[in-house]
Amino acid sequence: MMKIFFYFLAGFVLYISQPVYAQQNPVFPGWYADPEGIIYNNEYWVFPTYSARYEDQIFFDAFSSKDFVTWKKHHRIIDTAEVKWAKKAMWAPSVFQKDKKYYLFFGANDVHKGEIGGIGVAVADKPQGPYKDLLGKPLINDIVNGAQPIDQFVFKDKDGQYYMYYGGWQHCNVVKLSPDFKSLVPFDDGTIYKEVTPENYVEGPFMFIRNNKYYFMWSEGGWGLPNYKVAYAIADSPFGPFKRIGNILEQDPAIATGAGHHSVIKVPNKDQYYIVYHRRPLGKTGANERETCIDVMTFDANGYINPVKMTFEGVKHKLK
Q1: Mean pLDDT over all residues of the chain?
Q2: CA-atom Rg of the chain in angstroms
């Protein structure tokens, strides 16, 4: 009897000494895609697309957390009742703070030639809204250089100038934003739109600066397919040229498929980065069955992005 008890006790000690990881991916429940992550007021925030039929995509929710583990949902921070010209397909928020105001750029209506829709702008006094339509119409309605006006990302350059990268249908443009975000400003050569499409680009542009280099990222493949993935380039200018280096996030047969349309969060004052993205759980095939996840993103000694390892554990990092 004592021997049996000893084996039981030894096994129990061995069991409790093993590391136990809580599953943190997806980071919050529900079908959400195209997540933009940002730090506001010492909190992590994620602004995703509600992943559903186009006709049901008539609002945005937001989520906030101190540690990537416990998330608070902020329901319906803006919807089509506020944005009168938006009827469906509200997609891919891009968010930032300027002059004590919070801005949210978004796509709506899955616009085609001759239709009303495209990229809109909303503003609020708090990250959780409520957001108000800034213009009462799209900022960009037209299809220029073959780029559908969706998947906008607003980027602040080192000199304080704000640019917006956007585009679906395998084309990407960059435009210069006015200080009040109510209009587009011509470049020095008089043009309004510059095409910066890299090889294999499909949609979902994102930009950040590291060690004075411009890291331009985008999604490839089909958003409703297993082969959705993320690629990147490195340039010396916000206008490129962006020479494709390779993929850094893609499906893993042990974890999930359809990994893409991401953003990146940098921890303040540290060379520490997290990639915020959506993926499709194994066994799911519906195009809108997408969930938001966060994993670590690292670099090699030469500054190239290492392939991201998708996990179920996710990450935990409490902001100071």
Answers
A1: 93
A2: 21
Asked if the model's pLDDT at residue 13 lies above 50, the reply is no
Structure token pair of residue 284: 């799911």
Q: Are 182 and 134 in contact (CB under 8 A)?
A: yes
Indicate if the alpha-carbon torsion angle 200, 281, 78, 274 is positive or negative.
negative
Between CA 268 and CA 202 the distance in angstroms is 30
Kindly state the average pLDDT of the residues 180-189: 98
Give the residue among 115, 168, 163, 162 at the shortest CA–CA distance from 145: 168
CA distance 156 to 9: 59
- Residue written as token pair 């993320």: 230
Cβ neighbours for 268, distance < 8 A, ≥ 6 positions apart: 39, 319
Contact 128, 74 (CB under 8 A): yes
Residues tagged active-site: 34, 203
Concatenated DSSP letters for 32-60? EEEEEEEEETTEEEEEEEE-S-GGG--EE
d(CA 33, CA 117): 20
Per residue in 94-144, pLDDT (tens digit) is 999 999 999 999 999 999 999 999 999 999 999 999 999 999 999 999 999
- What the chain holds in terms of domains, given with CATH numbers, is 31-297 (2.115.10.20)
Structure tokens at 151: 């998947």
d(CA 156, CA 310): 29
* Alpha carbons 239 and 49: distance in angstroms, whole number: 27
Report the alpha-carbon distance of residue 69 to residue 252 in Å, rounded.
Answer: 23
pLDDT tens string 207-246: 999 999 999 999 999 999 999 999 999 999 999 999 999 9
The one-letter amino acid at 286: G
